[in-house]
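User: Structure tokens for this complex, please. No commentary.
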Amino acid sequence: MLSIKNLRASINKKEILKGVNLEVNPGEVHAIMGPNGTGKSTLASIIAGRDVYTVDEGEIIFNGKNLLGMSVNDRACEGIFLGFQYPVEIPGVSMTNFMRTAINEQRKYRGLDPMPANEFLAKMEEKKRVLEIQAKTANRSVNEGFSGGEKKKNEIFQMAMLEPSLAILDETDSGLDIDALKIVANGVNRLRRPDNAFIVITHYQRLLDYIVPDIVHVLYDGKIVRSGGKELAIELEEKGYEWIKAGLV
Amino acid sequence: MEKDPKNIIEEVTQSEYKYGFFTDIEMDTAPKGLNEDIIRFISLKKNEPEWLLEFRLDAYHKWTQMTEPTWAHLHHPPIDYQNIIFYAAPKGTKELTDLKQVDPELLATFNKLGISLEEQKRLSGVAVDAVIDSVSVKTTFSATLEKQGILFCSFSEAVQKYPDLVRQYLGSVVPSNDNFFAALNSAVFTDGSFCYIPKGVRCPIELSTYFRINAANTGQFERTLIIGDEGSYVSYMEGCTAPMRDENQLHAAIVEIIALKDAEVKYSTVQNWYPGNKKGEGGIYNFVTKRGICKGNNSKISWTQVETGSAITWKYPSVVLMGDNTVGEFYSVAVTNNYQQADTGSKMIHLGKNTHSTIISKGISAGHSNNSYRGLVKMTKRAENGRNYSQCDSLLLGDQCGAHTWPYIKAENKSSVIEHEATTSKISDDQLFYCNQRGISTENAIGLIVNGYAREVLKKLPMEFAVEAQKLLSISLEGTVG
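Assistant:
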């Protein structure tokens, strides 16, 4: 589904990604771990299409299409979703209005008619229930006045509404207490299908107890230096990133 | 015995000489320029009573002693008043026969606003099928209003039909010498709306100029007078979202509202006069004096406006809170794009006791435009327990536009409470990226965000206007990416 080959990218002439290679197949959950500042969020932003970064070399192919050169909203309509690390607030725009606009634009891209209002509202209700989101949240402006945890839950709620093929969750667990974490993980797990995939970016092994990955990668100094099964996350937790660094010398 | 047509002409032309002017009354259009002759010509053409001609002449003389105000944050080449035609008879016949003859860009905007084909024809001056040019629709509404004793007609008609009412209130809220443009309007006003709601009557429909019978092309020097008698209620809508073109560049209107005891008047405006092209050429100059007086106790006047058009906008819809426990409100969204300039705001003058005013102004600047809020909140010595809440927000799209604020507060009474809040913001790249990442195009994202920003004001509009206004906001900001 997603094929990244030799990706090099920089911002303000400073190179952040130094040759990333990654293959994600349908039905898989990948975890990307690594110390702060190694480029995890940068990688997520670049797949989503953020133009502050310059791609210097390499390719990103998604379902056979070249993502580089595709606009951010086109990539989203192709089925890519980014759960932001720091979701912004959009005052005055209600969640309902926001979601309906997004869903219908994506449907239009795929040649479908807009979703009928009752179907849309029913879907909103269903997903809110799954994620244990209060009813009144829908009328609040997007993320306005939300606590950190509420913002993260709201990201997963949007993911549940949009049903992407590839969801990249950037530090979804930061700021969540254990209960919220379980709810979010549950929401993610319920969306797992053989035809979609997840990339979960996290610092901590804890989230991976609930969202069990198929493959764990360690991103260090702009490159994926190690990949393994879910045991790698546990080993990393025990030994720390120094262990990885030592292995590279 | 029927008069010989030749005699009639002779009589009329002789009477012209009696008044001492030489303009041919048969002409449909006055010659360019402004002088006493032209004013007499206008008044005669409209068959006005003597007192109204005096009113005009008095205003004209005051105007000649005044100079244009220069304190606004507006720049424009000097206006040559002697190069303007101050009277042109409404066109009886429509010149165009097919929508295909209309400017395609105009048609595209009509379509985007969802305006029906028949309405498009009417707005472009294309002849409308006799069946649809619904005298029948208009007369149905007129009948409903008449039953309740509500008077609603063109100003010119009111002068003929209800001269006493007009005479009593004309100029009572905006005196002719109030300002340069008010004096000009008072001298040469063309037409507008007249509305009187009798005691205790709640007007059952939203009144709008569309339903005014014989609505002529009279946007240039519009004069409107609305009177809400004791205990009455009316909601009046001015303008429409469709882009309006006019060969006349200078517009100077006056709207006067009088609310007697326990009355409420809501006045909503959606203004989209031609703003000039992308280079800032052409475009309407809109200099408007709008004022309401809450004359009786417990009365209320609200102004709600969405301004997206005109090259230059100068207007400060105001309320004089004369009675006790009166309420004045001003809700505004003003958009400027390309090279438009707006200097707009409100004045709330608190005279009575326990008066309350609210000002919510949302400015949106884009392109190379300049958008200024100018407001006055005045609590006079007698205005005990007066309260005001003002919020003026500016949203900047891009880095070539300007937003400015000039709030004036005059507190002459110790018991008054005046609150003023202001914010300035941009649509951040982060917000746009967030929307993009959900599949929303940048254009639609800006529309969403701008409408969210303006929501507080938009929800004050009557529903039909609100829906159109939302579309209008999105369209006015087309091309302002980032």
